Amino acid sequence: MNGLKKHYTRKLQNISRSYLVSLPSEFLKKHGLKDKKNASVIIKINEDWSLTIIPEKLAEQISDEIIIEVYREVAREVVEKVLSGTEKITILSDKKIDEDIRKEIRFFVDGLPQAEILEDEAQRIVVYNIGFKNIPNRKILHRLLSIVSDIFENIKKEKTLELELNFKDLKKFYIILNGNIRTYHNSGFLEYGDEELTQKKASDYRIFSYQLKIIGYILRDIEIDDSILELFTKIETYFNAIFDAFLKKNERLAHELWFQNQPLEREGRKLMDGVSSEFKYKINLLLMIVKICRSMTALLYS
Q1: What pLDDT band is residue 38 in, cutting at 50, 70 and 90?
Q2: Is pTM, for the whole model, over 0.90?
Q3: Which among 22, 122, 189, 275 could bridge 279 via Cys, Cβ 3.0 to 4.6 Å?
Q4: Is 19 helix (H, G, I), strand (E, B) or coil?
Q5: Which among 188, 237, 215, 182 has a CA at the least distance from the CA of 286?
C-alpha cells in the first residue's frame, strides 16, 4: 500500500430507507471490480461493530475455523493461521498426539498474545484466536475444568513442568472469565456471544470458576504419597464425574453427585485416627476439595 491512502472519509447517502457509501477507486482497481458488471463484496460486522469489506472472490479464502491433521511441524502452521486471522484451529489425530508436538504447539501459542489453547485432549487440541473474536464464557469454564483435571493427573505422575503450565493457565483463564463476567454485570450487555447468559448464570459461572481456582491452589500445596494416594484417586474420579456432568449438561447426574461426597468424607475421617498432625493436615486438604466439589454440583443444576 505504499503511496496509497489508508483512510478515507465518505459521507453517507440516504436513499429511501437505505444508506449508501462509495468505495475507494484504488480498492476497486486492485480487486478488478471497477469495470465489472454485477460485482459484489462481502460486508462483515466485527465484534466492535466496525465493518470489514471483502471482495466476493476472496471470501472463500477466509475461514473462521480450520481443521488440521497432526504432523511434525503443525505448530508452525497454527501460528500462520492465527496471524492470518483464523478464529479457531482444531488439530486432530487418530491416536494420542506426540508429547513433543504437543509441547511445541503450547510453546508457539504461548508466544502469541491473541491466541489461547481452549481444549487440550489426547487426540485433539483446539486453539482460539481471541484477538479475532472473544471466546464464549462456557468455553472458558470448560477449559478451567480441563486444567484442574490435568492437575490431578499430573500430580500423580509427578510431571513438574506440566504442572507449572497448568497453574499458569488456571490463573490466566480465571482472570479472563471473571473480567468478562464483571463487564456483563456492570453493563448487562451480551458482549461475548453467550446468548443464554443471564445475571444468575453469570454469577454461577463466577462462583464456579472461583471454586476451581481454590481447588487448584489446594492441589499446589499438597504432597501425595502412598498413604493418601487411594483417597486422592477417588476424589479425582469424583471431580471428573462433575466435569462430565458439566459437559453433558446432565442435571440427573449432578443431583446424584451431590450425595457422593459422604463416603469420601467418612473414608478421610477414618484415615485420620491415630496419625500425625502432618498427615491429618493432608487429609483435611483433600476433604476440603470434596466439600468444594459438592457445592459445585449444586451450581450444575441450579
Answers
A1: confident
A2: no
A3: 275
A4: strand
A5: 215
Residue 163 has, within 13 A of its CA and on its CB side, a CA count of: 16
Cα(199)–Cα(157) distance, integer angstroms: 40
Domain spans of the chain, in order of start: 13-59, 63-133, 136-300
d(CA 224, CA 283): 10
β 88-92/65-69 pair status: parallel
Q: Cell 469495470: give the residue.
A: 35
User: Is pLDDT above 90 for 14?
Assistant: no
Return the CATH class of domain 63-133.
Answer: alpha beta
In one-letter notation, the amino acid at residue 81 is K
229-265 confidence digits (pLDDT tens)? 999 999 999 999 999 999 888 888 988 999 999 999 9
Q: What pairs with residue 15 in β-bridges?
A: 18
| Rounded Cα distance, 83 and 132, in Å | 10
Separation CA 294–CA 144 (nearest Å): 17
CATH level 2 (architecture), domain 136-300: Up-down Bundle (1.20)
Q: Note whether 128 and 87 are within 8 A (CB).
A: yes
Sheet holding 124-129, edge to edge: 65-69, 88-92, 124-129, 115-121
Res. 2: pLDDT tops 60: no
Three-state secondary-structure class, residue 62: coil
Can you tell me which residue has the cell 460485482? 39
The CA R_g of the chain, rounded to the nearest whole Å, is 25
